[in-house]
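User: Some background: our group keeps a shared notebook of sequences we're curious about, and every so often someone picks one and asks for a predicted structure to add to the entry. Today it's my turn. The entry only has the sequence so far, pasted here. Could you supply the structure so I can complete it?
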Amino acid sequence: MAKRRTIAATPPAQAAGLVRPATATREGVEPWSEASGPAAHVKPSHQDEAHAPRRKTLDLGFPSWCLGDLCATDVREYLRHSDTILIPKASLEQHGAHLPLFCDSITSDEVARRAGRRAGILYTPTLWMGYSPQHLKGPGEGTGTITLRVETYLNLIYDIGRSLIHHGFRRLVFVNGHGSNIKVIDPVLRKLRNETGALIVYYKPYAERYLGMLQDVLEGSVEETPGWHAGELETSQCLCHNPALVRMERAQKSRAHAPEWLGRAWTKKDGMPDIEFQGYRYFDMPFEHGEFTETGVMGNPHRAAAYKGEIAFNRFANHLIDAVHELEKVKVTMRNVDWTSGKTMGGTA
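Assistant: Of course. Here's the predicted structure to add to the notebook entry:
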């Protein structure tokens, strides 16, 4: 594959997938900077830039970089220049009393859309359904969470992957916004790779136990779990995306804890499946989310600010762009790409 040439597009009148309304940061508006934001503790980084001037542009006249916005002829033209596609995916699940159920999907959509727009990388509409049984709670409690069964979810990912590979995409980058999807997705990612030879990549632009490039942005202590469910980071990202969707008057600071029925010998500090016993994390248990946080929140949403969300989206998007440029240097040898034969159609993952 030849070295990527960045492809410029005319910004769409309305973003595909999860729509950013007038109250949200619009395309073309400069991101937060020290001159406009209140975060003196944040050191400027090249990952904060909305545009990377070192990249050349090629204007194909596309109205958008979302696959669903394009025509078949546009897809064929894109494949003349690149065989990479981003697949944002997450969930629709409760995020406490103050954040929208789309919270995780907002993250994956924002990151993929920003990366696609800035570097000319095609992306699919966001897959808003995922694996979230721990967020259902009891019948009639009305959390709004929609979860897929494991076999349904794996078949969905497999069918999408095989369809894209059939058309000529050789490098599939899944942009995941929901941690629990990782629990079940490994078999289908391996199946796609082993059957076709495609380069399959799984990107996780969030900060649960690993703050990574957001250590200088998030102000909460490790004990406060700033990167966790409906806490400082996710509330900041939703405020950036659309503050009208955030009900800060309902926000509650909350920490994870071991379920009372386990007794005092056990402790739990975050949303991972593991639980501490005698100070060590050697045990996992399949908890319901409500068993270790009654509010649905882990962290301190009162530390949130829209500029933090803007920085996070920009850094994650630019990190993804840099990774794609390196991934396109990798040699990919394809096989079994035809998905119209009876041998593959109608099968299960």
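Suggested note for the entry: Residues 33-222+313-327 form a domain with the Rossmann fold fold (CATH 3.40.50.10310). The helical segments are 72-79, 103-119, 150-167, 182-196, 232-241, 289-292, 306-327.
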